[in-house]
Amino acid sequence: MRLFSVLFFPPTVFAILSLAILGIGLGAALVTWQARWRERDRLPLILGLAVLSVLLITVGATISNVQLALFGLVVLPYLFIGMTLTTLFSHTPQRSPQLYMADLLGAGLGALLAVPLLNLVGGLNAVLATAVLLALAGVILASRRNAGLVLLAVTLLLLVTNLLYPWLTVDMSRLPAAKPIAESLSSPGSTVVDSRWDAFARTDLVDPGDGGPYRVYMDGAAGSVMPPAGDNEFLWQDIGFFPFATEQPQRVFLIGPGGGLDVWFALQSGAEEIVGVEVNPATVALVNAYAAYNGDLYGQDQVDMRIDDGRSLLRREQSQYDLIFLSQLVTLAAERNGYSLVENDAYTVEAFSEFWEHLTPNGQIGIKLYDEPTLTRALATALAALRGQGLTDQEGLQHIIALLDSNADPPIPLMIISKSPFTRDDALSLGAVAQQVGFTPLFLPGVVAQPPLDSVADGSMPFAEVIASAENDLSPTTDNRPFFYQFERGIPQTLLPLLWGLVVVLLLGTALLAIHQRRAAGGRWAFSAPLYFAGLGLGFIMVEIGVIQQTRLFLGHPTTAITVVLATLLISGGLGSGLAGRWMREQNSFSLWPLLTVIIVLGLWLLLWPLVQERLVGAALPLRGLIVVVSLLPLGLVLGIPFPLGLRAVAAGGQQQVALAWAVNGVMSVAGSVLAVTLAILSGF
User: Fold this and answer.
1) Of 192, 379, 453, 605, whose CB neighbour count within 10 A is largest?
2) C-alpha span between 207 and 455 (Å, rounded)
């Protein structure tokens, strides 16, 4: 994921990873179809092919003309791993609980180790390290180990040499996706000044070469300005400076200051206390490392920089601020479209309500946006939040102004939400200042209101009618549906190819399944067993995705949330599988009670978690992490039971039935991930 996130935008990464995981199911299907491929002696060869395919992907990711081929190549290592797992389980189905315990414990350990590994060696070398692990597994399984040892030595040599003398690198000026960093590096004299690659992102500091300020890019996108200590007069014309200059806030809370531009604004306005919250640690490290260039922005006495999620941190504190400012997370309309499937919980009704509660009586929320659709959606979200404060749309608009910097390319809008309503004199004064510095007022309460907003302002029409009549989906985003950049009505175009591809795979798979089971004479479980494993594949991945989303704000940093939840569910699932194998040694038939237990435990967690989260959100991070682990432990334990017991039961039909179970489960896991995202966009998590 970290490697592909540099090369492509999130929807493409999601499609690539879905195809990759599909490889596990396809590998299981291959050994179901051809019994001779299920021979245990073939496993070292299969794992050797997995190693070679990982190396091929790693090298291919660094070659511009080959990067698009990753769509096909990425299936290969997972296909070979699927063949390996299925073969191992098929030969010893009675030991399925123990094997599944090892599988899940290894996966949980992998989730924990991935973060320090990525932080230590970066994306490319982390992928090479997985090739070393696969080569080591091949050596362990081989009876004659000469060839395996040679492959392990070669893989180790590739990793060590690339660590010491990086000869495998990604050229950020030639990416397969049209990312902003590539456009910046195409200018004469532009260069990458510094790079950091960790578990959160690849972060590059770029000198554009045209005399302009350095820019910080995250995964080649989401560019932010690093203000120079001198020659920065042009920054005074940035529309983001407007709320700082007009209100002179003393206490400022900045969400996502990136390269430090928002901190520079706050310092210029004379703010006495500036709290900046940046989710990307490498960005803060770069600003600190180049303190001589930027005037040591983050080292000033007034500045308190935190590595965290801004909204999560605000929830845990009782402080109030004169200005809460959110700057652009992306800069171009094309780039914004690339984030259509990405959750953004800083721009939701609940987030705006929380910002409102942390304002001083005359405090303001400033939001620097991207284009007209994002401005309209932010306005809809703000009005929905204000309705939660007991205000009508007409009254809510008295708290809002909107401006446009039409001189920027593309034009950049700014929305300001005030805790106290703007008077007509306030609106006239702010409008005059805006026009004086070259900004166009889009909405000023009682002064400027263009159709159809004028009808909302005079109370003759609710804003919901404006949203309903719009061609795009501009409805307010919520924590349940936090897809701020998704403007298409219905299923996003970026998901449709994946959905249609899955439909084809499922239809073809169902037909082949019916033919196979008739020939295999699967008995009374011929069709009920595949349905059982299909349900497990769908359910497990959907529970994981839902739980990660439910706990993310509580834990704060997204990397922490994903790591803690995945590791907890996988490790506890492995323990549950091992315990089930020990307690139910004699059970070789399907049982309904493990599934019922999962449903009951999941239902209890969904009921109790909001109460736990509300009462303990202010705890220190280690305690919050422990709370998540303890709360999810029972769920993970029961989730690990149905699959291995089902494998042991279906083994009565022969090795082919065990392999088929893996194939069905693997394919439906992919269907579950795609279905989870689709349902979240259409109706919420």
Assistant:
1) 379
2) 47
Residues in Cβ contact with 501 at an 8 Å cutoff, skipping those fewer than 6 apart? none
> Quick one: tokens of 364?
């303001």
Total Cβ atoms within 10 A of residue 212:
15
CB-based burial of residue 485 (10 Å sphere; 0-12 exposed, 13-18 middle, 19+ buried)?
buried
Of 390, 324, 334, nearest to 356 by C-alpha is 324
Neighbours of 463 (CB within 10 A): 26
**Interatomic CA distance for residues 531 and 528, integer angstroms:** 5
DSSP conformation class of 36: G
Dihedral sign for Cα atoms in the order 611, 612, 613, 619: positive
Collapsing DSSP to helix, strand or coil, 72 comes out as helix
User: DSSP string of 591-616?
Assistant: -SHHHHHHHHHHHHHHHHHHHHHHHH
Residues 381-410 pLDDT 10s? 999 999 999 999 999 999 999 999 998 878
Phi and psi, residue 280, nearest 5°: -100, 105
Q: Which residues of the chain have pLDDT under 70?
A: 328-341, 520-525, 585-589
Alpha carbon distance 500, 614 (integer Å): 40
> Can you give the pLDDT at residue 589?
66
Least Cα distance to 204 among 239, 230, 175, 233 occurs for: 175
Under a CB-based contact definition with an 8 Å cutoff, are residues 408 and 451 in contact? no
Cα 93–chain centre separation: 36
Which own/partner pairs from 112-116 qualify as long-range (CB within 8 Å, at least 24 positions apart)?
A: 112/563, 112/567, 114/199, 114/563, 115/199, 115/559, 115/563, 116/199
Q: Which residues of 425-439 are buried (b: 16+ CB within 10 A; e: fewer)?
A: ebbeebbeebeeeeb
303: Cβ contacts below 8 Å, ≥ 6 apart: 263, 267, 274, 276, 297
CA distance 321 to 23: 51
Residues 6 or more apart in contact with residue 143 via CB below 8 angstroms: 41
Of 397, 492, 513, 499, nearest in space to 449 by CA: 397
What is the predicted pLDDT for the residue at 114? 93
* Residue 225 DSSP one-character state: E
3-state secondary structure of 203: strand
400-405 vs 440-444, strand pairing mode: antiparallel
DSSP letter at 14? Answer: H
Dump pLDDT digits (tens) for 93-121: 888 889 999 999 999 999 999 999 999 99
Query: Are the beta carbons of 316 and 617 closer than 8 angstroms?
Result: yes
Strand partners, 401: 416
DSSP for residue 541? H
Burial class (CB in 10 A: 0-12, 13-18, 19+), 81: buried
Q: Calculate the alpha carbon distances from 293 to 28, 193, 596 in Å.
A: 55, 12, 61
DSSP character at residue 477:
P
CB count within 10 Å of CB 195 equals 17
User: What residues contact residue 595 under an 8 Å CB cut-off, 6+ apart?
Assistant: 642
Q: Where in 513-581 does DSSP place strands (E)?
A: none
